[in-house]
């Protein structure tokens, strides 16, 4: 995965994280219990942190070019998809 592709993937991850957070704050607040809303907020937080981590890996990849960084980014995105 190139650094440019990783930036796009990280940006989409952050975009969906923000959208999911807004949906939880405005759409789910009246529908689900506070306990489930807390679980939703935790999931959104994890997604946003992973998106920022992927952006950091893209920045490091541009500087160092290690194949392990691409592997780390792939694992981070897999974590977002699985979670």
Properties at a glance:
mainly alpha; elongated; 0% strand; 83 residues
Description:
- The chain has 83 residues and is mainly alpha-helical.
- 88% of the residues lie in helices and 0% in strands.
- The chain contains three helices and no strands.
- Helix 2 packs antiparallel against helix 3.
- The longest helix is centred in the middle third of the chain and has 31 residues.
- The mean pLDDT is 91.
Radius of gyration: 15 Å
Largest sheet: none
> Would you list the SSEs in sequence order as H and E?
HHH
Alpha plus pi helix count = 3
Distance between the termini: 22 Å
Query: Stretches where pLDDT falls below 50 for ≥5 residues?
Result: none
- The number of strands is 0
Q: What number is the mean pLDDT?
A: 91
The residue fraction in helices comes out at: over 70%
Shape: elongated
- As a percent range, the share of strand residues is under 5%
Structural class: mainly alpha
């Amino acid at each position: 995965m190139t650094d440019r592709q990783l930036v796009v993937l990280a940006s989409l991850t952050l975009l969906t994280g923000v959208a999911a957070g807004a949906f939880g704050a405005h759409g789910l607040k009246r529908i689900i219990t506070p306990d489930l809303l807390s679980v939703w907020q935790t999931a959104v937080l994890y997604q946003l942190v992973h998106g920022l981590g992927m952006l950091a890996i893209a920045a490091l990849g541009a500087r160092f070019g290690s194949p392990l960084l691409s592997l780390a980014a792939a694992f981070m995105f897999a974590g977002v998809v699985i979670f």
